[in-house]
């Protein structure tokens, strides 16, 4: 069984459609749960004014009945509450030329897809490119990833996230369950209260200077049996698939698995996780590998660290060229975020969940949730020790 999803929609368009295919029947999916993750995606000290204007109006169009999946494709619609204002600019059947011209973006922002999007698709200005390249589409991805997360929860797998750095102010990762929980509820994704004030100051300072910030965050998956993913072909390796999914989040420029870059400087004797006997099986005392060996889960916590670049739309814009006049100008200023790292973390959690749910579905298959869960439990049993 393969899971897949597709989306359609533009940032200021009518809304986003998300169609998910391959989910087994009998999975309880609550729209409230999807809304909860959408609300987390909108969080963050440093988000722009748009977050206050937009609401994620979510509806299910198919594949759910009485709160359970039927086995049919799932369809979700996220309506854009600002659509009427944008209709003259983006109407699929004909725009108002004056308003479309006024909303044209001819000063491409360095660090965004504006310029290359125009060159690639043959547009004279960047409105079409930026409408689809916008990170607003990550709301639709969050819907898909949350359904995957609900499936994983039904299999005993948990996905967590926490921000570990904003604008160069790094903090230590969460160490306790309470700290992970705090990070989940915090608007900064921060595991400890005392670390929030320096981050807020950093965001305020950037905003005052017309600047933007990036940062780092962690995504963790626990409760996984050994053996999801495979070394059998390059594209089945789960470390590559997870890194690819997280790098797909707009602005993410680095993904590290476990101790990642730090391992490069160590000798082999310090770098790997030795295997010890334990009652009824084996155990590890370290997790430098971040839960992945040979392209597969090894039964330990999967730990991924991401680095996000600063937001490209600056209050104090960078130099660029005007696409019509070819004159040197300052880049377009759109209302936007000073920092979106806490939101990017939520999107990354969703895409990590999606990737892991795909691996679980490929490995354990099943048309019904009970079949998938039964086979997943067998995998877990086998992982304890197969003699
Ligand atoms: C949740 C989220 C919100 C974002 N908000 C903005 C924004 O308001 N303005 C902006 O220019 N970029 C924003 N970005 C970042 C851009 O989408 C990203 O830097 C851009 O797509 C280019 O990144 P890429 O080179 O990785 O594609 C946001 C990213 C995420 C994940």
Give the tags.
alpha+beta; binds flavin mononucleotide; five-stranded antiparallel β-sheet; flavoprotein; four-stranded antiparallel β-sheet; chorismate synthase activity; Chorismate synthase, AroC fold; Chorismate synthase; 387 residues
List the helices and strands and how they pair.
Elements: E1 4-9, E2 15-21, H1 31-41, H2 50-53, E3 56-62, E4 64-65, E5 68-69, E6 74-80, H3 83-90, H4 97-102, H5 114-121, H6 127-133, H7 137-154, E7 158-166, E8 169-170, H8 177-185, H9 196-208, E9 215-222, H10 238-247, E10 252-257, H11 260-263, H12 268-271, E11 275-278, E12 281-284, E13 292-293, E14 296-297, E15 302-308, E16 319-321, E17 328-330, H13 341-364, H14 369-384
Antiparallel strand pairs: 1-2, 2-6, 3-6, 4-5, 7-8, 7-9, 9-15, 10-15, 11-12, 13-14, 16-17
Helix pairs in contact: 1-7, 5-6, 7-13, 10-13, 13-14
The chain binds flavin mononucleotide.
Commentary on this structure:
Its EC number is 4.2.3.5. One of its GO terms (cellular component) is cytosol. The chain is an alpha+beta fold. It has one domain: Chorismate synthase AroC (Chorismate synthase, AroC fold). Helix content is 37%, strand content 21%. Strands 8-7-9-15-10 form a 5-stranded antiparallel sheet. A 4-stranded antiparallel sheet has the order 1-2-6-3, covered by helices on one side. Strands 4-5 form a two-stranded antiparallel sheet. Strand 7 (158-166) and strand 8 form a beta hairpin. The two termini are 28 Å apart. The relative contact order is 0.18. The mean pLDDT is 95. Flavin mononucleotide binds next to helix 13.
